[in-house]
Amino acid sequence: MKKRTIKLLTTLGSASILVGGCGLVAGPQKPAPVKKATQATRKSANKAATTVKKAGTSGTKTAPSPAHLKVIAFYDQTMAHVSPDPFTFVKAHPSLVTYLSPFWYEVTPTGTVIAKPEGNAATLAKEAHLPLMPLFNNYMGTDGMLSTAALRTKAVDSIVQLVKSNHYAGVQIDFQQLKPADRSLLVMFMNELHAKMPASAAISMSVVPLTAGTGQAGAYDLKSLAPDVSSMVLMAYDLHSNGTPPGPVSPYPWVQQSINLALKAGVSPSKLYLGIADYGYLWKAGSGKATTIPLKVMYQHKYGAYTWDPTNKEAYDHYTSHGVSYTLWFVNDRGAADRIKLAEKDHLGGVGFWRVGYEDAQWWNRVAKALNNTAKKSAPAPTGAKASAMAPPASPQHRSIT
């Protein structure tokens, strides 16, 4: 690798050295007041799931789903300033994304909810007719809000109030770093959330695969949790990541096994969504530390040269710089398409992309094609839309060594 490329990967700072998978929890956030959505945003959140404005007219038409699989796109607002802008691609593929899930809220040990800076996600979602399903994670991996009935009720009421006041289309519950002792407490929390949530609001939940090999998986009673959710996102990535030896982020046989175990545990295929990564990790020889590299940055490594692993269906590379060996593994556009096909083969309800802001035009184009190929019939083009004007810039060619 050329010296300037190493400099690129190490000087992007927080823009690229980010938490890769859902399995890790970000650092503490400064509490901020919860903001109410504008009237326009509330109307968009209510109507965007079912109608799309006809360009140049005052009428509306039903928005057809372009694919059999639904899509939850997790949105990292911190990547919005890193070119290319993620919403360029979202808007270039109308109706591809079913829900946008920005990282807006954290639940504290005392059951209160911290609101993170919203950025421009609400405005952009309105422009792209995207229903909002904000993500609620547990602050610093806490399980304190699960510990008593009073704290569970306080947390649930806070979440429900935010959904009602902002007219969100749903919520994404992303509680991680939990312990097996939290298993029944998490079920009670989701039971109460389901009972109090407006009937029109979807409830989605991220879960650690039973194949994860860590104690976290024991916190999820998938069979008992399934009745309380509309969808369950299987976080089938980060088998190898920071803290492990180099290896595939989301090895295909492991992904298939994770799906099989979730279904065997009692989750209906229609509720199970396959989580798909669009990032990778860089390991330095002799170190278990790995740096998260977004896909759009990964492709700049050695001008996109990599080796394709047909078994794990991932890309990798080994190289030496200044006498030091490095290893890269990442799920590229080809890997994403293979996992979409797997979700369709297993008759799953959808997929979840972790996370919008990491990818490039090539990834979006291939993913869109894979999703549309799973549909039983093609969806009609949006009336009056000028798709050509919205097309993203072409990305560089990437050399695959097969």
**Low-pLDDT windows of residues:** 1-19, 23-67, 376-402
Instruction: Give the domain tally.
Output: 1
| SSE series | HHEEEHEEHEHEHEHEHEEEHEEEHEHHE
Q: What fraction strand? A: 15-25%
Q: How are the strands of the biggest sheet laid out side by side?
A: 3-4-6-7-8-9-10-16
The CATH class assignment is Alpha Beta
Number of strands: 17
Give the number of helices.
12
Based on Cα principal axes, name the global outline. globular
Largest sheet: 8 strands, parallel, barrel
What is the assigned CATH homologous superfamily? Glycosidases
Q: Could you state the oligomeric state of the chains shown?
A: single chain
Give the rounded overall mean pLDDT. Answer: 80
Task: Explain what you see.
This protein has 402 residues and is of the alpha/beta class. It has one domain: TIM Barrel (Alpha-Beta Barrel). The protein is 29% helix and 22% strand. It has 12 helices and 17 strands. It has helices at 3-11, 39-47, 86-92, 121-127, 149-166, 183-196, 222-225, 252-264, 295-298, 333-345, 361-374, 387-390; strands spanning 51-53, 60-62, 70-75, 99-107, 113-115, 135-138, 170-174, 202-207, 231-234, 272-277, 279-284, 290-294, 306-309, 314-321, 324-330, 350-356, 400-401. The strands form 3 sheets. Strands 3-4-6-7-8-9-10-16 form an 8-stranded parallel β-barrel. A 6-stranded mixed sheet has the order 12-11-15-14-13-17. A two-stranded antiparallel ribbon has the order 1-2. Strand 8 (202-207), helix 7 and strand 9 form a beta-alpha-beta unit. Helix 2 crosses helix 4 (121-127), helix 5 packs parallel to helix 6 (183-196) and helix 10 (333-345) packs parallel to helix 11 (361-374). The longest helix has 18 residues, at 149-166. The two termini are 20 Å apart.
